[in-house]
Amino acid sequence: MKLNEFFKNHCDAYFITLKRREDRVNNVKSIIANDLFASHTVIDAVDKLDLSIEDTKEFYRKANAEWEMEQSLPRDVRLYGVERWVGGKEYLFERPSSRSLYTGTHACYLSHIKAIETALSDENNSEYIVIIEDDAQFNNVKMFDCIDSVDVFTKPDITVFGGAVKMASYASEENRFEQLIQGFNVAKVDRIPSDRPKSIRQRYITTMYALRRETAYIFLDTVKKHQMPIDASWWYAFAKLSTFKYNPCLIRQDQVNIEAARRDTNGKKKGIKNA
Question: Whole-prediction pTM value?
Answer without folding.
Answer: 0.85
